[in-house]
Write a structure and sequence with these properties.
The chain is α+β, with helices and mostly antiparallel strands. The protein is built from five helices and four strands. Strand 2 (about 100-105) and strand 3 form a beta hairpin. The chain starts with 17 loop residues before the first helix and ends with a strand. The chain has two domains: about 1-50, no CATH class; about 90-139, no CATH class.
């Protein structure tokens, strides 16, 4: 029996391992991983059945956490706005607005009543940034 070098450990005539067909018993080898892999590719031998892959279950998206996070963000924004309202002691008004302004009682965030100058028609007096800085805080 002849043996081709391309298939180590096998007889080229019967495609069996040398220990089974009896040729060249001195070159007998154990079935290593390479020969085991090649055995499935040979046309005359039985092919091993492939194991079916298990399908992964899709995880459901957790919407509750997102809603909670959004609520927390909204609460933080409201708290920051309230802090800013408390910090603001007056409104910046330019000279023309002060002339047409009227004093009104306004409740502060803490419940104190404040008398604040409020412009009657702020749309009539568009202010630029420089005019805003030229204005002053009025109580």
């Amino acid at each position: 029996m002849q043996w081709d070098g391309w298939l180590p450990g096998r007889c080229s005539a019967c495609l069996r391992c040398r220990s089974c067909c009896g040729s060249e018993r001195d070159l007998r080898r154990k079935h290593d991983a390479v020969t085991r892999r090649r055995r499935t590719r040979l046309p005359g031998l039985k092919k091993k059945k492939k194991k079916k892959k298990k399908k992964k279950k899709k995880k459901k998206k957790k919407k509750k956490k997102k809603k909670k996070e959004e609520k927390k963000k909204k609460k933080k924004k409201k708290k920051e706005e309230m802090k800013m309202k408390k910090k603001r002691t007056g409104e910046v008004l330019c000279d023309e607005e002060v002339k047409q302004a009227e004093t009104r009682e306004r409740r502060d965030g803490s419940g104190r009543s404040l008398s604040v100058l409020v412009a009657v028609a702020p749309e009539d007096f568009p202010m630029s940034a420089s005019e805003r800085w030229m204005g002053f805080l009025v109580w």
